[in-house]
Amino acid sequence: MEYPGNLFVVAAPSGAGKSSLVKALLELDAKLQVSISHTTRKPRGQEQHGREYWFTSEEEFRSMVDQGKFFEWAEVHGNLYGTSREAIEARMAHGDDVVLEIDFQGALQIKQLFPYAVLVFILPPSWEELRQRLQRRGEDKDQVIEQRMSNARVEVAQAQQFDFVVVNATFETALFDLKAIVHAQRLKYAAQRRNRSAVFQALNLP
Ligand SMILES: Nc1ncnc2c1ncn2[C@@H]1O[C@H](COP(=O)(O)OP(=O)(O)OP(=O)(O)O)[C@@H](O)[C@H]1O
Ligand SMILES: Nc1nc2c(ncn2[C@@H]2O[C@H](COP(=O)(O)O)[C@@H](O)[C@H]2O)c(=O)[nH]1
């Protein structure tokens, strides 16, 4: 499948900082839009339906799966998460750039459907720092944090399948790296597809 917009996928173990980084990136980049996923997870404290996620029942989620409404979906930390076609298709067809914040299973499904998608994996600087970020965030019970730490080992092992790996030690440095990846992809895309004919015509080149 091919659309005129760029597609970026950011994955990371829970607590590595991907939501914080993507949020900061979106504030700096008006051309980038984030996809809102569906999930069967219960909302955390400040989360709102339609802002962080579309919170759904498992029955509704599975019915959407049966109807082919997702580009990708996966079970993560015991809940279901998915990117609906509706969340990204119209935007990409319109030429907007879209970023997905999803787990590695979803990222690899997206790469199959959209080979030109750019996959970025965010790593924490250490396991201890990852645990401390989950604890400091204060949103998850100890048992949930332990489950996420254990799943993180499996997730990090998938990083080599991604196009880029960014270590989120210092937030500003990681944000700079993400911006550079987005910028480089736009230049590559412009050279390969979107603007080539216009530029060549302007320069009177064949
Ligand atoms: N570079 C950093 N240094 C210190 N703390 C950070 C850094 N980046 C993010 N954090 C903090 O770590 C916590 C986890 O970040 P965030 O919620 O963005 O992680 P996440 O990868 O999106 O997790 P999840 O997948 O569970 O949503 C937050 O409290 C955030 O403020
Ligand atoms: N495969 C998908 N994974 C998703 C999607 N939306 C979020 N996620 C990932 O789930 C975990 C947990 O998120 P949390 O908000 O409960 O902490 C995290 O790795 C997300 O990236 C999705 O649509 N598809």
What does it look like?
The chain is of the alpha/beta class and 206 residues long. The chain has a domain at 7-35 and 97-202: P-loop containing nucleotide triphosphate hydrolases (Rossmann fold, 3-Layer(aba) Sandwich), CATH 3.40.50. Helix content is 47%, strand content 20%. It has eight helices and nine strands. It has helices at 18-28, 58-66, 85-93, 104-113, 127-137, 142-156, 171-194, 196-202; strands at residues 7-11, 32-34, 37-39, 53-55, 70-76, 79-84, 97-101, 118-123, 164-167. The strands form two sheets. It has a five-stranded parallel beta sheet, sandwiched between helices. Strands 4-3-6-5 form a four-stranded mixed beta sheet. Helix 1 packs across helix 7 and helix 5 (127-137) runs antiparallel to helix 6 (142-156). The longest helix is centred in the C-terminal third of the chain and has 24 residues, at 171-194. The protein is globular, with a radius of gyration of 18 Å. It binds adenosine-5'-triphosphate and the ligand Nc1nc2c(ncn2[C@@H]2O[C@H](COP(=O)(O)O)[C@@H](O)[C@H]2O)c(=O)[nH]1. The site of adenosine-5'-triphosphate (ATP) has 14 residues, from helix 1 and helix 5.
